[in-house]
Amino acid sequence: MSVYEFSAKTLMGEEKALADYKGNVLIIVNTASKCGFTPQFKELQELYDKYKDEGLEILGFPCNQFMNQDPGTDEDIQEFCQLNFGVSFQMFSKIDVNGKDAHPLYAYLASQKSGMLSKKIKWNFTKFLVDRQGEVIDRYAPQTSPAKMEDDIKKALQS
């Protein structure tokens, strides 16, 4: 099994198969518009701009499960991300990342790489790095700056 087995709805309401990203290195991240880590959108966009031509894709999944930090509609989220951070990478419709309603992709990701004390997603901006074969390489805590992932991203792109 790999991340390519899953699909999700984009902010534009279209079902998107993750198999469309086969052969790319992925950063999959649960996001929020009103979180202390929200400025990470800027670094994620910078990484995307720098490495997209080498095969990096970033997939953002808004989530409102942590202190209601993304209460807006998909349209609100898209506008916020574009206006405030110039986000041009793929953003998906809001999902749950934990619990009985967790999106199957996130249930899979959490089962592949645990956090410090549990498999559960602890907060917004938990990041997963996925190789070109769709296998999870690593999981990064919310407080880990996307820029600190750059060496790992470069290694994955060269594989």
What does this structure look like?
The protein is α/β, with parallel strands linked by helices. The protein has a single domain (23-158), classed as Glutaredoxin (3-Layer(aba) Sandwich). It has helices at residues 40-51, 74-85, 104-112, 150-158; strands at residues 7-9, 15-17, 25-31, 56-62, 90-91, 127-130, 136-140. The strands form 2 sheets. Strands 5-4-3-6-7 form a 5-stranded mixed sheet, covered by helices on one side. Strands 1-2 form a two-stranded antiparallel sheet. A hairpin with a 5-residue loop joins strand 6 and strand 7. The radius of gyration is 14 Å and the shape is globular. Belongs to the glutathione peroxidase family. InterPro entries: Glutathione_peroxidase, GPX_AS, GPX_CS, Thioredoxin-like_sf, Thioredoxin_domain. Keywords: Oxidoreductase, Peroxidase.
